[in-house]
Design a protein that fits this description.
Layout (H helix, E strand, L loop, with lengths): L4 E3 L3 H11 L5 H19 L5 E7 L4 E7 L2 E8 L3 H10 L4 E2 L1 E6 L6 E7 L7 E6 L2 E2 L3 H12 L4 E9 L1 H10 L4 E7 L2 E2 L5 E2 L5 H6 L4
Parallel strand pairs: 1-11, 4-5, 4-6, 4-8, 8-10, 9-10, 10-11
Antiparallel strand pairs: 2-3, 6-7, 12-13
Helix pairs in contact: 1-2, 2-3
The chain binds 1-O-pyrophosphono-5-O-phosphono-alpha-D-ribofuranose, uracil and magnesium ion.
The site of 1-O-pyrophosphono-5-O-phosphono-alpha-D-ribofuranose has 22 residues, from β4, β6, β9, α4 and α6.
């Protein structure tokens, strides 16, 4: 696997992933844990953000402080990526949020797009794509291509669970993208679901499973 893939290894992340995998975890708990786990990942994902110096006046004297140099645009892939947005906004409240609506066709497993809404100046921003599942990689690759067509060049992808097939596709098609995952799972099943995985992330978050 390329060196633009970082598997974030942390005991609290491993503990939280176990709750998310558990089929008996209800949606209310699933959402809270997804948010907490995303916060743990966000700390690592934002580690290389550049700073600008800014003077700040404490009650005692003037000293050097910092502001973030670059604008940040969070891009959740609907629906499941929505479950990761608030954790990033807690840490980067000044970030703007673009949305990409995609779902996988159940037969072909190809992504079908239905919604796009973005802030301006993608070319000057650091883009952080959020989607808990990187399975075949079709959805995230489509999102990256779409963003690049609109000028984005500095792109990070944050997923909880990735399949080897999806990582291979993403690193081959977009070797410049930095990828952060909590775990690399074993394989996809014949329906394109990650094994062992956690099931359909959107359904688990929003309670829409049959
Ligand atoms: O890597 P891929 O093979 O493209 O699969 C991953 C995609 O599948 C899920 O979305 P889904 O299609 O279930 O849509 P939903 O979030 O609306 O349920 C998931 O949230 C990813 O977007
Ligand atoms: O296992 C999977 C694969 C794709 N999308 C999901 O939500 N889960
Ligand atoms: Mg789904």
């Amino acid at each position: 696997m390329g060196n633009n893939l970082l598997i974030i290894d942390h005991p609290l992340i491993k503990r939280d992933l176990t709750y998310l995998r558990d089929k008996n975890t209800p949606s209310s708990t699933f959402r809270n844990i997804l948010r907490r786990l995303t916060s743990l990942m966000a700390f690592e994902v934002t580690k290389d953000l550049e700073l600008l110096s800014r003077e700040v006046e404490t009650p005692l004297e003037v000293t050097q402080g910092h502001v973030l140099r670059d604008e940040i645009v969070l891009v959740p892939i609907l629906r499941a990526g929505l479950g990761m947005v608030d954790a990033f906004l807690d840490l980067i409240p000044e970030a703007r949020v673009g949305h990409i609506g995609l779902y996988r066709d159940e037969e072909t497993l190809k992504p079908v797009d239905y919604y796009f809404k973005f802030p301006k100046n993608l070319d000057k921003s650091i883009i952080i794509i959020l989607d808990p599942m990187l399975a075949t990689g079709g959805s995230i690759c489509a999102a990256v291509s779409y963003l690049k067509e609109r000028g984005a060049s500095r792109i990070k992808v944050v997923s909880l669970i990735a399949a080897p097939e999806g990582i291979t596709k993403l690193t081959t098609e977009h070797p410049d993208v930095q990828i952060y995952v909590a775990v690399l799972d074993r394989q996809l099943n014949h329906k394109g679901f990650i094994l062992p995985g956690l099931g359909d992330a959107g359904d688990r978050i929003f309670g829409t499973e049959n």
